Amino acid sequence: MRAAAAAVGLVFGFTLAWSGMSDPDVIRRGLLFEDLYLFGLFLSALVTAGAGVHLLRRAGARALVTGERIGWETLRPERRHIVGSVLFGLGWSISAACPGPIAAQLGGGLLWSVPTIAGVALGIKLYIVRGRTAARVPAELPVPVT
Amino acid sequence: MRDLLLARPPWFLAGPLLGLCVVALFATINERLGVLGGFSDVVERLSARSLRLGWKGCFLLGLVAGAAVFTVLSGGGRLGSGYGWLTREFSGGTTAALLVASGALVGYGAKTAGGCTSGNGLSGNAIGSRASFAATATFFGTAVAATFVTKLLFGAGV
Q1: Cβ A93 vs Cβ B152: under 8 Å
Q2: Confidence category of residue A46, pLDDT binned at 50, 70, 90
Q3: pLDDT tens column, B67-95
């Protein structure tokens, strides 16, 4: 599983770097609609991915490494998807990079990726810690006696 | 080889290649490709004082290596030493602080939303998840609006 994931990651990272996604100017020009490359890239990736995974599922294919039947479950939109994506969109706009390109910047030797990665790690850690605190709160509340 | 790599490939070649990565991950291990999950895996393992990464962390390491391979083969890649609009508008220290803050928004926001541009934007939409449609519309809308605002505030910017 891990080798398969690493191999796919290798192709994904190579393509991100080759297509210029690790260049913050390319992303910023895309978000300002001055260069539509970002949208062409995203939409053609999405159409390819959508067609491919649906064909796999329809064919009843099994995953080559794990042998599971290929399939998935989807979620309904919840508040967290919107709130989280507003925060994510703000961070993406300022840094002109999202997680894939940030990792590709590191691979490309761009040292400015170091503070961004530190920030990403901090954000993830904060989310985990906050989740733990939220999970603990109900147990600490006194049980109401009726 | 070097010239081929230094020129940006057309979007209709690079886009489908990225899309095929999503397909390949389903075809091999029946999992959703997402880069934020890779960062999260690394943070969780390091917090647990472990270096044994799961498949998500291995995907991330592969991604970093893939970008490094591109950079070596293309003779240094196309990235300069600055950082886009940030180093043009601000000092180095301010840029670093803004990158830490925006990185934290990216990490916390994408964790909350259950995915980033790849996890929700590519994989989630590809499997027809309505949560991912909502997330993608929101982060694209927010990012476009925020970028126009910073362009207004800081002038040329780009």
Answers
A1: no
A2: very high
A3: 999 999 998 877 888 999 999 999 999 99
Whole-prediction pTM = 0.93
What b/e string do you get for A36-51 counting C-beta neighbours within 10 Å, with b at 16 or more?
A: ebbebbbebbbebbbe
DSSP-derived 3-state class of residue A36: coil
User: Is 90 exceeded by the pLDDT of residue B27?
Assistant: yes
What single DSSP character describes residue A78?
-
Nearest to A90 among B83, B129, B142 (CB): B142
Residue among B20, B136, B25, B121 nearest A51 (CA): B20
DSSP conformation class of B81: S
- Cβ contacts of B59 within 8 Å, gap of 6 or more: A5, A6, A8, A9, A12, B25, B33, B35, B37, B38
Out of A24, A46, A64, closest to residue B84 by CB: A24
In chain B, how long is the greatest CA-to-CA distance?
48
B109 touches chain A (CB under 8 A): yes
Residues B67, A108 contacting (CB under 8 angstroms): yes
What φ, ψ does residue A62 adopt, rounded to 5°? Answer: -110, 145
Nearest of A24, A116, A17, A114 to residue B72 by alpha carbon: A17
Q: Say yes or no: B48 contacts chain A, CB-CB below 8 A.
A: no
